[in-house]
Amino acid sequence: MTEFTIFPTVGSIAQKQLLRATLNMTIRSVSQLIDHNNVSSVVLEIGEEYFVFSVEDLLKHLHGGGSSEATLAELALRKITCVFENERVLTAFEILETSGDRYLGVVDAKESLVGILTDTDILSAVDPTVLVQKKTIGDLVTRVEPVTFTADWILEDVLSHLQKMEDSIIVVESKIPVGIITTKDIFKLISSADTTDRPLRDYMNSPVITTKVSSTIQDALAQLKTFHIKRSIVVNEENQLVGVVTQSELVGFAYGTWIDLIKHHAGELKELVAILDAKAKGFEKSSLTDPLTGLGNRRMLDKRLIDEIGRMRRYDAPPFSLLLLDIDFFKLINDEHGHLIGDEILKAISLKIMSLVRCSDDAIRWGGEEFAILLPHTPVEDALEFANRLRTSIEDFSFIERIKITISIGVGQFSISEHESEFLDRVDKALYLAKHQGRNRVVADTSAGPVQNSVMPI
């Protein structure tokens, strides 16, 4: 059982028993695995990266006309954002809230995945004693009337209303909820090879667990925990449907209340002030991000370089390396296809970079069509290998309108005796050399130490 603290660490509340899958598994076999273990997702470890396949991914696959016999290798899996296990839960909550992700990977000091964190886990850490007991669920019910159906509707005709994990199809008679179909039920259908061409009454769960509009937030949270459900179906005194409050909405309210009340806890005041200060400085965070690609910008790279150089000099830590890369002939692409297509290519390349880097790496849009990748704890030999893997991946990928793209990359390892500007200049010169020698290649700077095969030809 979770031990309640004001701000527990993510490692103390995360799901530690991970359900793992492999790329050769079919959608049906994964659905059976998820259904049998009563969970909502599986994790895949590919190289040094972690990915997730969840209820929402299944729904997206089905809505796109995908087959249940397709393998996970055929899908575009979602890479998990990772946080260290000693981070506080409020940090994780803000990441989930800002990114819109449903899952966070929890890693140890060696960056090995040790758990998964979701809204459900955060909900389990909410101490009901700190909530305002007089606040009712009716105060949170959305003003948008929920979409409902009668029992004679055919399931496949309304499946499009299931898009996210917390979505549900509510079946009513005279405005009274008589049944519910959740996204988890869809996993059961897929795993059992059942069809979706029958009326809702054949699939729905009944009776429906409902919450009175006069129930307190504390009661609603307790109900979600007790019955392991992801939404409160709110009804009035005549048991007529009023609205739906999702688990994430309840968690958001609970944490908002938690933050307000925690001001009275002197021992946690410093941490609270830091969190509130971080929110007040949200503009600073946005100023570190490139608005087009979502990658970090030049200012973030400057900040991270200072961090890594300081780490090496203070602790005699392992070296780090830097990649500077440039899209070959990008001006011609803009001239021939227009800047809108050029922007789409920049975003596509950014996604490609993010799919290859580790959780600890920093991907940066240096400016225009130039990018930078900071690789902590990475000697130049390993950085060179990664750079060629990235170059090949870009070369083999068919971008928008079947435009073929190549990149040139300069690689360098920081020497503890040099200045930051000298280091950047060395790597920039390596990039220039890569372009001067014919493009679509990697050149590693060798002035910080010998590297074999530093120039990688096409």
UniProtKB/TrEMBL annotation:
<dbReference type="Pfam" id="PF00990">
    <property type="entry name" value="GGDEF"/>
</dbReference>
<feature type="domain" description="CBS">
    <location>
        <begin position="204"/>
        <end position="261"/>
    </location>
</feature>
<feature type="domain" description="GGDEF">
    <location>
        <begin position="318"/>
        <end position="447"/>
    </location>
</feature>
<dbReference type="InterPro" id="IPR043128">
    <property type="entry name" value="Rev_trsase/Diguanyl_cyclase"/>
</dbReference>
<keyword id="KW-0129">CBS domain</keyword>
<keyword id="KW-0548">Nucleotidyltransferase</keyword>
<dbReference type="InterPro" id="IPR050469">
    <property type="entry name" value="Diguanylate_Cyclase"/>
</dbReference>
<dbReference type="InterPro" id="IPR029787">
    <property type="entry name" value="Nucleotide_cyclase"/>
</dbReference>
<dbReference type="InterPro" id="IPR000160">
    <property type="entry name" value="GGDEF_dom"/>
</dbReference>
<protein>
    <recommendedName>
        <fullName>diguanylate cyclase</fullName>
        <ecNumber>2.7.7.65</ecNumber>
    </recommendedName>
</protein>
<feature type="domain" description="CBS">
    <location>
        <begin position="76"/>
        <end position="136"/>
    </location>
</feature>
<feature type="domain" description="CBS">
    <location>
        <begin position="141"/>
        <end position="196"/>
    </location>
</feature>
<dbReference type="GO" id="GO:0052621">
    <property type="term" value="F:diguanylate cyclase activity"/>
</dbReference>
<dbReference type="Pfam" id="PF00571">
    <property type="entry name" value="CBS"/>
</dbReference>
<keyword id="KW-0808">Transferase</keyword>
<dbReference type="InterPro" id="IPR046342">
    <property type="entry name" value="CBS_dom_sf"/>
</dbReference>
<dbReference type="InterPro" id="IPR000644">
    <property type="entry name" value="CBS_dom"/>
</dbReference>
